[in-house]
Design brief:
Blueprint: E1 4-5, E2 17-27, E3 32-35, H1 38-49, H2 52-55, E4 57-62, H3 69-82, E5 88-89, E6 100-103, E7 106-116, H4 123-133, E8 147-154, E9 157-165, H5 172-186, H6 199-207, H7 209-228, E10 246-255, H8 256-269, H9 273-289, E11 293-298, H10 306-309, E12 319-324, H11 330-346, H12 352-366, E13 374-378, E14 400-409, E15 413-419, E16 424-430, H13 437-456, H14 464-468, E17 480-482, E18 485-487, H15 489-499, E19 505-510, E20 530-536, H16 544-554, E21 567-571, H17 581-585, E22 589-593
Parallel strand pairs: 7-8, 13-15, 20-21
Antiparallel strand pairs: 1-2, 2-7, 3-6, 4-9, 5-6, 8-9, 10-14, 10-16, 11-12, 15-16, 17-18, 19-20, 21-22
Length: about 600
Amino acid sequence: MNPAARKDTMHPNTPHTTTTTVTVAYAGGEERRGPVTMGQANMIRCILRDDPTHINIHDVWPVPEGTAQQAVTDALRALTVRHEGLRTTFPHRPGCAPVDQVVATEGTFTVTVLDHAELPGDPAGYAESVARAARAGRFDLEREFPLRITLLTVAGAPAHVALAFSHAVADGSAMAVLREEFAELLAGKELPELTSLPPVDLAAVEASPAGLRKSEASLRYWERILRTGPQEMFAEPRGRRPGTDEEARQLTLRSRRGGRALAGAARRTGHPEATVLMAAWCALVAHRAGQDSCVTAVPSANRFHPRVARSVTTTSQDALLHLDVRVPAFDALVARTWGAVLNAYRHSQFDSLRLWEMIGRVTAERGSHFGRDVVFNDVSALPAPLLGTDAQDRDDAEHELTWGPPQTLPTRLLAFTYRTAPQLHISLWAAPSLFAPEEAEGFLSGLVLLLEAAAAGDVPMDALTDVTGVRPAGHGPGWLRVDGCWVSPDAVRETLGRAVGGLPVRVAKEPGPHGTTDGTAGATAVADPRLTAYIACGETPLTPEAAHRALTALIPAAGSGVLAPHRYVLVRNPPGEPDRSDAWRRLEIIEEGTGRSRQV
């Protein structure tokens, strides 16, 4: 090791600190090269595109009192030699995304040592801030060691290791594995042999005939949801467009009440706690959004197979759960959730580049913009749940909600479930444009109330407001359920008008396939209405296909509730009463058609 004193502006300093950098050499393992995995390709795409503070990830590992610095660096070296993912770089030509990964047999990494006279009053929170600060700056995929390591010491004695990871080599599950093994190494334990696949071998499995068939099946599964499911769960007048980044504060629930209720509901229904919790989550999300189904991403779902359960790599590919909540009572929804979750898990391995190409194609054909609005990440079953700081390890809270720091996220509702026993421990980030602080608190408290009611007996789905206190979102006048989505015809008209250069436009509600236009659901469900756009094009050359293309180009930046019409009708001039749809219908049609493609 070659210590060298230097100043490091990446890490926040406190008074009476000194900074040194220790270079650690490692050697071992086998030099290997192969294609990137599907998960790596997915995250590399995000790394090259997104803000590093959003895509890089971090963790804090406590160091037991009395541990020497040498023991810490030795443990970090051992982990690097043990796990090929930590010795992996991604060579590529400028302007091109990497397609290969290279595993080194030797190299070096650095540990920045911040030595303190004493740590601040909240040592764990301070360590968290150091780790989070290290997320700034894009990792050099071709050259940089994929961990940024800061050792916090007090008078030379290690206290915490704060780390930032490249998401190309690790995800939350991988960090949990590393944290657990780091603690075991410091305790003098011998680590067991690896049983899960390293990234190069995982890529070979994915590229096998069976792996390719699995990927194709996943793409077909996703396409069905994208063509028929809600394009945005929270389509509301006050909502921002899908995919818009918002800064949301962390809201954390710690509830022994919730833990007891979840266990009781699981016993009564005979289903696993994870299934009951997912059903409750989807029921409440769909109820709050006023939707007949819940579409939620489940990022940790692809760790269910033993060959990847403890792999130190990134398997970050969403399982996409589409759950129809139109059942009489909660027990039926729990039973339905079990199969839906398994189906989603089975279809969580895919070629991410082809997936995004398909998303672009399908949403253009449908005239929509798919929003990854809702994310539910249950990491409670991981070997060392990522609780962030020591303060989060408390399990004595009967029921409390606490607000934490803000984070910018490209989702509207993100939840991490860290523990389910002895307390239910969930952190929630809810878009402030949709959830006022009291509404976010009411949502998590409502989740506990739903679980308590489900532990006592079956809960009618039409009683969710009374049971949970969570009210469905209100939609403005004129909003309709169209194609399984909440749509504002006025927003469609305004967006289409801009798309065609300000030509007069009327968007009219037309009967659905069964001759109804109310779009409601009851004892005898009726079809959604359809939208027809009338465009007075005058002498402007225009076709229905061109109007559709122009509209879909604007939809990603449009407001909430915009979906392309099913039919475009071109007329010469607007009627004398342009606000009356029947007046538009009486005009002579120049041309009509649709830019949409097939539905599956």
